[in-house]
């Protein structure tokens, strides 16, 4: 117990902003799932959330590490908190398992592969786009 207290000492603000960001991100994800519900079909809302979240994470990390002198709690709030709560790879796994175990092998397999490839591509695209925007704003030329 003393070890846990030692590890957590001074982490109150970070824990608070991650919690707040996570709650806001999860609420945003839930709102999107209400706009794009799926009833046994392809889980478009989860795919959109995970891909857009990965795009945002890629851009955010570039902006926070290469462009700004960000406040110390910006990355925990926005990255770990908001975007961590917004993206939902646990729902992705559960939905894929549900499709596969329900006999929709092609749909489930497509969902598994599409989400993985699209999320990785989106994270790369987010970093690349942010670097291009930053380069143009710095010297007018892309890098």
From TrEMBL:
Protein's UniProt keywords contain Cell membrane:
yes
Gene Ontology cellular component terms for the protein in this record: plasma membrane
InterPro entries per the record?
FluC
Q: Does Transmembrane helix appear among the keywords?
A: yes
Q: Where located?
A: Cell membrane
> What UniProt keywords are attached to this protein's entry?
Cell membrane, Ion channel, Ion transport, Membrane, Metal-binding, Sodium, Transmembrane, Transmembrane helix, Transport
Query: How does the protein associate with the membrane?
Result: Multi-pass membrane protein
Query: Biological process GO annotation list?
Result: cellular detoxification of fluoride
Family membership noted in the UniProt record: Belongs to the fluoride channel Fluc/FEX (TC 1.A.43) family.
Name it.
Fluoride-specific ion channel FluC
* Species this protein is from: Lolliginicoccus lacisalsi
Q: What is the lineage of its organism?
A: Bacteria, Bacillati, Actinomycetota, Actinomycetes, Mycobacteriales
